Amino acid sequence: MQSPMATSSGKRKKSTVDKYFAPRNTQGAQPFMRSVLAGKEAIWRADMAGPNYHQLQVNLLKDAKKEVQLIVNSYRVIWAKVGCTIMGDGWTDNGQRILINFLVYCSKGISFVKSVDASDIVKDATNLFLLFDELVEKKKDGWIEILRPSATRFATTFIALKSLHDHKHDLQALVTSKFFVDYRYSKDNKSEVAVSIILDNIFWNDCLIVVNLMSPLMRLLRIVDCDETPSMRYVYEGMYRVRLGIKKLFNYNKRLYKPYTEIIKQRWNQPLKKNIHSATYWLNPCFQYDQENFCNKPTVVGSVMDVIGQKVLKDKLDTMNEMKLFRD
Asked: Own/partner pairs for 307-313, CB < 8 Å, 24+ apart?
């Protein structure tokens, strides 16, 4: 195999690198490199040979890949703890191909994931979403998922249900249209079941109830998931408004709203309810002057006393007087 520096005549082609070792007065000379290499020869022996092709392409490349993989794995630990940002960097190469590099950014650094040739793709919001979605949904052996908004995953079910209810009349018009009735697949069992559900008013009434029940919970979830401001001070008030909203939905008919409020109350009281939630609610200036909707139950005041009592060693009577001054 011929060296890249050799010509067809067998003579070695002169490279610009050769000029680096030319005399000092030669154009392009780099005399300092000669002294550096001479020093290295003295340290590592003059007969030391550089790595061959096999070492560069196999052993050294394999070691470099392992080092990079360890770095990326350390980044993934940060992704799981504090989250990350997926970025797309578009550019055009010398061949006029439009490429998109997908990167994952976190506080520890940026890692490259993959590159996509987008020359034949219309660069609109839909196609960009599909590219990002493919990256998010990507799985690897031993992983459950790389990234997934797991805390809000259940919300997509209710968002889809709301979308169905918003298109109720369109769906009913579709299944009763001549085009659909004459379609050959409209007569099979699955189509008949789907048509009966779409034309069932009880189904749509149930959809409306579920959507209206979930709307206040969804709003609370958005507040809790927000990373811009601390959300603990809004949790108790959010749960209070959720239950109040459900009661209003059923016109305060206890027989109708109680099954739903009991479920929420049970889930709230057992694993979620903490004194700190009540205390941050009671001390939050956002709700301090809303006397009409403010919850001043003894349990709330008791929770505030418990939290303050753990931090303040003063007389409890003085503490209660100061709390009264704060509220007044």
From this structure: 307/275, 307/276, 307/278, 307/279, 308/279
